[in-house]
Design a protein that fits this description.
Length: 196
């Protein structure tokens, strides 16, 4: 398994800032050809480091509603259905789940209908309480700079280094710190498949 090098990190940083940036332009900046950048991006995708390329729509410029933070206090059994409901809601841009099992989301909704929208969204889901906070200004700048990147073993959670292994099981890519973790994972996966 190849470790992430400085060039991979530079490519990730540039794509995080603008995922539509041409590979030839990235290559000029870091001293590689466009096809070489494309090969590296493909390897990062195959390794599961890059999942998707997305766009960040400025809904404010589209006059798509008032920005609000919604804090939900939920019983434990409502966490998954509430999260699923929020993921399907067009107005919701970001969802955060706290260590206590509460949900906070950032959304843009019509000003006069915020509470009505929230109530309608969760009419079939138990919610202990919720608060809605009007947001005055938003800055969302996801970055990978200053973050230590390391792949983690799918079996034991340890860091995967250059001696680790990567394999595709059931259509998904998994990383392992050693061959014994890979074997244990494959055994459990096969057992799960035969039981299903």
């Amino acid at each position: 398994m190849r470790e992430l090098d400085e060039t991979d990190m530079e490519i990730l940083s540039m794509l995080a800032a603008d995922s539509r940036r041409p590979f030839s332009e990235i290559g000029e900046e870091i001293g590689l050809s466009g096809p070489a950048v494309s090969d590296r991006v493909t390897r990062l995708q195959e390794a599961g480091i890059i999942n998707t390329f997305t766009i960040d729509v400025n809904r404010g410029a589209l006059r798509a509603g008032v920005p609000v933070l919604i804090d939900l206090d939920l019983p434990a059994e409502s966490l998954t259905p509430a999260r699923d409901q929020l993921q399907d809601a067009d107005a919701v841009e970001h969802i955060f789940v706290t260590a206590e099992g509460d949900i906070r989301c950032y959304a843009r909704v019509e000003a006069q209908n915020v509470r009505e929208w929230v109530a309608g969204l969760f009419e079939e889901i138990a919610v202990n309480d919720y608060t809605v906070t009007l947001v005055d200004d938003v800055e969302w700048t996801p970055t990978i700079d200053g973050v230590e990147f390391a792949l983690t073993c799918a079996e034991c959670g340890n860091t995967v280094d250059s001696e680790g292994e990567t394999t595709r099981i059931g259509g998904e890519v998994y990383h392992f710190c050693c061959s014994s973790c890979l074997s244990r994972f494959e055994d459990r996966y096969q057992q799960f498949e035969s039981d299903a």
